[in-house]
Amino acid sequence: MIIYDAENQVLGRLCSVIAKKLLNGEKITVVNCEKAVLAGRPKFTQEKYLHKYSRGDALKGPFFPKQPERIVRRTVRGMLPWDRTKGRNAYKNLKTFVGIPSELQGKKFEKTAFDASRLTCNFMYLGDVALAMGAKKRW
């Protein structure tokens, strides 16, 4: 089992690494999902995610989550072949958490290669986007 710490990691790059490992049959756990980074102008980022959440029908969908850990799961799902059995089975091996759960305290976490400190543009944390969409703060 591989444990990734999403703190100060660019969301798309982190999720692409996770999706590749999931397709290879690994079990992945992601902690600190609310501290993942979305690169780009904050106002545009908020509008984009709010549009994703509000489009569609309340009964028929598409359903887009507003909690940070579920947004990370949905982002990884978009990078998997969801229409095939291989993609759906890989998706079942992914666990995401806000913060660090007590059973994972003291374990060694992996980081991906692209840290947000290398960004030269504006960025926003996923927890702030979730709050703008109406999520209840649990972190």
What would you say about this model in short?
The protein is an alpha/beta fold.
Structure overview:
The chain has 139 residues and is an alpha/beta fold. The chain has a single domain, classed as Ribosomal protein L13 (Ribosomal Protein L13p, Chain: A, Alpha-Beta Complex), CATH 3.90.1180.10. 37% of the residues lie in helices and 12% in strands. The protein has five helices and five strands. The chain has helices at 11-23, 42-54, 68-78, 85-91, 126-133; strands spanning 2-5, 28-31, 37-39, 94-96, 123-125. Strand 1 (2-5), helix 1 and strand 2 form a beta-alpha-beta unit. The radius of gyration is 15 Å and the shape is globular. The model has no long low-confidence stretch (mean pLDDT 94).
Helix and strand layout, with pairings?
Layout: E1 2-5, H1 11-23, E2 28-31, E3 37-39, H2 42-54, H3 68-78, H4 85-91, E4 94-96, E5 123-125, H5 126-133
Parallel strand pairs: 1-2, 2-4
Antiparallel strand pairs: 3-5
Helix pairs in contact: 1-3
Task: Give the name of the CATH superfamily.
Answer: Ribosomal protein L13
Which CATH architecture? Alpha-Beta Complex
End-to-end gap: 24 Å
What are the low-pLDDT stretches, counting only 5+ consecutive residues below 50?
A: none
Structural class: alpha/beta
Radius of gyration: 15 Å
The helix tally amounts to 5
CATH topology group: Ribosomal Protein L13p, Chain: A
Q: Largest sheet at a glance? A: 3 strands, parallel
Mean pLDDT, as a whole number? 94
Q: Total number of β-strand segments?
A: 5
CATH class bucket: Alpha Beta
Overall domain count:
1
Spatial sequence of strands, sheet with the most strands? 1-2-4
* SSE topology string: EHEEHHHEEH
What is the percent of helical residues?
A: 25-40%
Please state roughly what percent of the residues sit in beta strands, choosing from under 5%, 5-15%, 15-25%, 25-35%, 35-45% or over 45%: 5-15%
